[in-house]
Write a structure and sequence with these properties.
With about 270 residues, the chain is of the alpha/beta class. Helices cover about 40% and strands about 25% of the residues. It has helices spanning about 15, 25-40, 50-60, 75-95, 105-110, 125-130, 155-165, 200-205, 220-235, 250-255, and strands at about 5-10, 45-50, 100-105, 110-115, 115-120, 135-140, 140-145, 150-155, 170-175, 180, 195, 195-200, 235-240, 260-265. Helix 3 (about 50-60) runs antiparallel to helix 4.
């Protein structure tokens, strides 16, 4: 059997949770996305979701991203993982209900980082799961780290890592806006959308991209773009589109035009 070149879908925490309220999921968005994923009918899909108002506030309260400093953080590490499994459970419930053969994989159990960067991740298991026609579902999680003891691994770093290792066909990122803008479109209705960006253009605007609204321990939009850049450098096409609007994710998955930002190496 030849290697499967996956399509990697990231569902941003801002799209699937309400970042103004801790531990609140947008279940209607999750259900619609599960339906759109089912209808895309892909046998090469990997899903990665973010933490939103589940992972970020808990991780921030205990300073998990910065690493292990004192024993009370251990409960915070456990709690952050636990709230991520709660959000993951909601995503999984919905996918299974929509008859997607989704299989949840906890990064905290199979990834080790070194100073925040993935060092060990047995991707052969993911390859095997994909080959058998399952849809692996991963998420931003707490992980053990060689230098820091532990830290937070963003879903975006997982997306890029898997995209490069598995030679992804493309990456689709679902957020709560219609792609990237020169300013926060929720705060400024006149914000200008970026419809197409080359790698060079992306690098230039990277630092202008603001912080996300609500708690974000992994660096907001600028942090996400920094994580995605290596995938773009490997020539992998990235589409960033609105997951909170009906059909954008479905269309992006099946290769149709969407309102959003297309990012290409050149
Ligand atoms: C964060 O993952 C995971 C935790 C805080 C445990 P992401 O950084 O990918 O999450 P979003 O998409 O920004 O919410």
């Amino acid at each position: 059997m030849s290697e499967v070149r996956p399509i990697i879908l990231k569902l941003g925490g801002s799209a699937i949770t309400d970042k103004t309220q801790e531990l609140v999921a947008k279940t209607e968005v999750i259900n619609r996305l599960a339906d759109e994923i089912k209808r895309a009918d892909l046998d090469n899909l990997i899903i990665v979701h973010g933490g939103g108002s589940f992972g970020h506030p808990t991780a921030q309260r205990y300073g998990i991203k910065e690493g292990y400093k004192e024993p009370t953080q251990k409960l915070g590490f456990a709690e952050t993982h636990h709230v991520m499994t709660m959000l993951n459970g909601l995503v999984m419930d919905s996918l299974i209900l929509h008859e997607v053969p989704a299989l949840s994989i906890a990064p905290s159990c199979c990834v080790v980082t070194d100073n925040g960067k993935i060092k060990i991740f047995e991707e052969n298991l993911i390859k095997r799961i994909l080959k058998m026609g399952f849809t692996p579902v991963l998420y931003g999680d707490v992980v053990f780290d060689e230098k820091l003891g532990f830290t937070v691994l963003s879903g975006d770093q997982l997306v890029t890592y898997l995209a490069i290792k598995l030679k992804a066909e493309k990456i689709v990122i679902g957020v709560d806006t219609d792609g990237l803008f020169d300013e926060d479109p929720k705060a400024n209705p006149n914000a200008k959308p970026y419809r197409h960006l080359t790698l060079e253009e992306l690098k230039k605007i990277q630092n202008k991209l603001g912080k996300s609204s609500g708690t974000d321990v992994t660096g907001g939009m600028a942090g996400k773009i920094a994580e995605l850049i290596p995938a773009v450098e490997h020539g992998i096409h990235v589409t960033i589109t609105g997951a909170t609007k009906p059909l954008s994710i479905n269309r992006a998955l099946i290769g149709k035009d969407v309102l959003g930002t297309e990012i290409e190496k050149a």
